[in-house]
Design goal:
The chain contains six helices and two strands. The radius of gyration is 18 Å and the shape is elongated. The mean pLDDT is 92.
């Protein structure tokens, strides 16, 4: 699975949320700095070429839908991030978030409970 650019990820999140959408629907959902319609159309076609979306044709119009599930992409992305930034150590990752105060003691206790209950 090929890594997406930031803009491609942003568009994929919209398509995952909408489940099926025309380019104009995606454009309407983008917050902040909206790309030009033609630019967005090119991004969506790139997503199709990379195998992330497919479409149903209605004349000259295409309605796009995700082929790759959000969970599949998240799993791939997280595995790569943990490998690249934490030497494949989940302990290092959790320690990083604890030091950055991005995770609370209560959340850590909940994680421990999840792990213990899975056994």
């Amino acid at each position: 699975m090929e890594k997406l650019t930031n803009k491609e990820e942003e568009v994929m999140h919209v398509i995952w949320t909408l489940e099926k959408a025309f380019v104009k629907d995606v454009l309407a959902e983008i917050k902040g700095n909206k790309p030009h319609y033609n630019t967005l159309s090119t991004i969506v076609r790139n997503l199709e070429e990379k195998g992330y979306v497919s479409y149903h044709a209605y004349g000259k119009t295409h309605q796009y839908y995700p082929v790759v599930k959000k969970e599949e992409y998240r799993k791939q992305f997280m595995n790569q991030a943990i490998d690249n930034y934490f030497n494949n150590s989940y302990k290092s990752m959790v320690s990083f978030f604890a030091k950055e105060e991005k995770i609370s003691v209560e959340e850590l206790k909940d994680i421990i409970a999840l792990i213990e209950n899975k056994k």
